[in-house]
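Input sequence (451 aa), recorded before submission:
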Amino acid sequence: NNCIIAASSRQITMTRTVFTTTAILIGQSLSCAAFSPAATKTSFSFALNDAINTPVEPPLNPLLSQIKPSKTVEVFSLVKQMEAEGETVTSLCVGEPDFAPPQCVLDAATAAMIGGQTRYTAVTGTADLRKAIAEDLKTRKGVEYNPVSEIVVGNGAKQCVYQGLLAACGAGDEVIVPAPYWPSYPEMSLLVGASPVILETSVDDGYLLNPDALEKCLEEHPKAKVLMLCNPSNPTGGVHSTEMLTQIAKVLEKYPNVVILADEIYERLVYTDDGQCTSFASLPGMFERTITINGFSKSHAMTGFRLGYLAAPERFAKATSVLQGQITSCASSVSQAAGVSALNEVDDSWLEDNVVIMKEKRDYVLQELAEMDGVSVSVPPNGAFYVLPDVSKYYNGDDTQLCLDLLKEKKLALVPGESFGAPGTVRISYATSMEELQTAMTKLREFLESL
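Predicted structure, token format:
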């Protein structure tokens, strides 16, 4: 039963490994009982040609098999594709203000380019910007940072979140991620080698982090090294009060090895009576273990400038600056000049006027949703520019299919709540014009009524 396959070395040049593998595969595919030299030669020739002509693709990093693509990015890309094909799409999927940055910010960027501020800066950012950030945090938030050693300017707040995680934890550690969550939190945790631990919150509590639930989670997960705390929240718009943050801090006092990564990028968009959002680092005993993330995208509509920052005790800031030096180096010099203007020249009244407008949009969306059958928002959001209504009465709770059909039939783009750890919901961003919101609410109502 020995099958002998010969090939002329003058006709084919190949490695012993490829030859052996191909021969084995052919030997397995042919019945030795029906073996004939002519048939075998022909079969071998075809198989060998296929093996030689098929390009070998080097394997990707196995880590990528664990990482999920961003649903928000996927939906946004699909919207842009549809628009490029000539379709008109109403999109409430991206968290991006519809208003332009202040004129002084645009002027500062222009002046920086004309004035020759187009070269590399220090990895941690220009001295002027770090000084402005430190002064702003001291004046508004009551926390003092050394602008030389405790502020790191990055290419957007997203980079700062990743670098903060990379500095604070690694392989074998766990990251507590309250749900609903920004989809990048669990994936970034995996990227740094840690394991995300999803901590469910209650819709009846407005999806805010319950201190008792946090303590129970920490008891059950002694490997926890980081708590992700997004306040105000993306995707819920929930805002933790000072009182609730204080209760969370008291729980964390019992777990001194846990670092708090406080993502406060939406802190200038708060609709409570006092309009305040307490910085977690300002609470007693929390400064030395808190990495604060902030930026200019949401407050000053500077999303395309890609400018964010991290403020933390020196050991964290230094670690993240080392990482950034090996990943991207500095943020754009032009963007940094614009950031200085945003902090030093933009009057608070400009920001406050935008908050009023955003609140009006929020109220309109909530009113429209309240009139739709099978849609509910238990606790109105008090910050950011998102609403996360429950639509689980439709599609048996399959929010992804609902969003796909909504986009196909009504050309309305929303993001499925499943990607935020909140199945049965959809995220609505009302950071767009009132006219666009009116069109969107009409499309959503008509779609749901047709089911």
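Checked by second reader. The chain has a mean pLDDT of 90.
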